[in-house]
Write a structure and sequence with these properties.
It is a single chain. With 514 residues, this protein is mainly β. The protein has a single domain, classed as Pectate Lyase C-like (3 Solenoid). It is built from three helices and 38 strands. The strands form five sheets. The protein has a 19-stranded mixed beta sheet that branches. A hairpin with a 7-residue loop joins strand 18 and strand 19. The longest helix is centred in the N-terminal third of the chain and has 20 residues. The protein starts with a helix and ends in a 48-residue tail after the last strand.
């Protein structure tokens, strides 16, 4: 019997080798960098379990069945763990359910690939600690993650989004990522590498798994600085466009386009650098929690725990809702318009270009914000963000505000530029209307900061590209912030004649044929 089993195994192995050798040259997936599927699903799939979930070293399927030349990412289960190393060749795929790139796994995606997120399964791609996503597009062939819905009917929250988790530090030790997935993040390796996202678009993501537990367009959980992030556009996210929980990953050339909640949200000790960021709002879309350009916390309760949220953002341009001449900051106007997904995501009001709170020590330099109701909120309800500002533990310099209703206010949901002196027993702010807010006073006292009554005074084409005589073409300074940043003379995301947004971006994904 043993000899018969051995002969049988040898025969099966020979057949497998023969099939592999006959594989075609245009297959959708390369396995482990060497073997290629033949399009009939005969490549060997090795199955295991991971935390009670089905896990496999292959990622492509057809209607839930093994198919190395399939176009479905994930086996159709709500949660699936990928454990192999494969390259998706240029093509169009459908992402089903929550697909985890597990510890030791690596998914590489070729330039020009389109991946559509399945709506019914709230599809999301989640890189776990020790896993890697290599999505390296080009300016001419970006990698696109988008809605599976037909053009003209796409909405924020049509699918989940992209989550990267790593082993870098945060200020809560090991953390559970928000949005519903099982994944944890955090460690002590600030050089950790979760892969590459370069020339990537993420559109119509952010499905609300539960109330206030949406997956963002792009979420970073303790991602280390060995990870490469550049040229990423997140459009019509149903929550934040970008959110960082701890970690120290560095990012360049980010676009947050018409998201639901905040453009750039930083928490739990994020200490990386970000340069060249463009954030543009839809005047009909704001979250019930009050939408901001920056929202920044040290942690949820404002504790004085380290590492502090000390990220440095430079050359950011925030384009607010007030550039719409008909804009009114009321529920009657902020309806979501044709982009309202009616999926339980509540609408609210626009608030501030920068809302820094809960002991955050976020830094922002060489930047522009136009057309927001409020410029800056240094919020002291939890923690002592104002104390950090006074002590010089945050840098807000060389920033131009224009066309605001208030340069600054001192508390969440307070739109008047008056001093908040404390909070009463019901946690309501106590105000001294005879004095300007701490926030506006601090902002105007910092080096290089200016306020303009009208955003048109900045001479910006298309609301964000400076004209030849624009005052934002000079005034930048990089003194004392380290060598990582590209030193430029201008404020904001773009110089006159800049082309970094050309080719790979899309400002009308609703009407694009995919």
């Amino acid at each position: 019997m043993k000899s018969m089993k051995i002969l049988g195994c040898i025969g099966i192995l020979a057949m497998a080798v023969s099939m592999t050798a006959c594989s075609s040259s245009n297959d959708n997936v390369t396995d482990n960098g060497t073997n290629t599927g033949n399009g009939t699903g005969t490549t060997s799939y090795v199955w295991t379990t991971d935390g009670g979930l089905k896990a496999c070293d292959h990622i492509l399927f057809s209607k839930g069945k093994e198919d190395a030349n399939g176009i479905e990412i994930g086996n159709g289960d709500q949660e699936f763990v990928f454990t192999g190393k494969q390259t998706l060749k240029k093509g169009t795929y459908v992402l089903n359910g929550w697909v985890y790139i597990g510890n030791g796994a690596q998914l590489t995606i070729e330039p020009g690939t389109i991946i559509k997120g399945d709506k019914d399964s709230k599809a999301a791609l989640i890189v776990e600690r020790g896993g890697k996503l290599i999505a390296k597009g080009t300016a001419d062939a970006p990698i696109i993650f988008t809605s599976e819905q037909a053009k003209g009917s796409r909405k924020p929250g049509d699918w989940g989004g992209i989550i990267l988790c790593g082993k870098a530090k945060n200020n809560q030790n090991e953390m559970q990522i928000e949005g519903g997935p099982r994944t944890k993040h955090g460690g002590n390796d600030d050089t950790d590498n979760s892969g590459i996202l370069s020339y990537v678009r993420i559109e119509f993501a952010g499905y609300p798994f539960q109330k206030d537990k949406e997956i963002n367009g792009l979420t970073f959980g303790s991602v280390g600085n060995g990870t490469q992030i550049d040229h990423v556009q997140v459009s019509y996210s149903n929550d934040d466009s970008f959110e960082w929980f701890g970690g120290n990953v560095n990012c360049k050339y980010l676009i947050a386009y018409k998201g639901w909640d905040d453009d750039f949200d930083t928490d739990n000790g994020f200490s990386g650098n970000v340069q060249f960021g463009l954030a543009i709002r839809d005047s009909k879309i704001a979250d019930t929690s009050q939408s901001n350009g920056f929202e920044s916390d040290n942690c949820a309760d404002g504790s004085a725990v380290s590492p502090y949220t000390t990220a440095t953002f430079s050359n950011i341009t925030f384009v607010g809702p007030k550039l719409d001449n008909n804009f009114v900051n009321t529920p009657d106007y902020i309806t979501g318009g044709s982009y309202n997904p009616n999926n339980g995501s509540a609408l609210g009001k626009f608030q501030a270009a920068m809302h820094l709170r809960r002991n955050s020590r976020l830094n922002c330099i060489n930047s522009i914000a136009i057309g927001w109701p409020i410029g800056l909120i240094l919020d002291n309800q939890k923690g002592d963000t104002q104390g950090a500002a006074t002590a010089g533990n945050m840098k807000l310099q060389n920033i131009y505000f224009a066309g605001m209703d208030a340069v600054g206010t001192d508390a969440n949901k307070i739109y008047d530029d008056v001093l908040v002196t404390g909070y009463d027993a019901d946690s309501k702010p106590i105000m001294d209307s005879s004095k300007k807010s701490f926030s506006s006073t601090f902002f105007l006292a910092q080096n290089g900061n200016k306020y303009f009554d009208k955003w048109t005074d900045l001479l910006l084409n298309n609301s964000y590209i400076p004209q030849a005589k624009s005052p934002v073409l000079s005034g930048a300074s990089f003194t004392g912030i380290g060598s990582w940043f590209t030193q430029v003379s201008y404020l904001g995301a773009l110089n006159a004649g800049d082309t970094w947004t050309s080719g790979w971006t899309n400002f009308d994904p609703q009407n694009t044929d995919y």
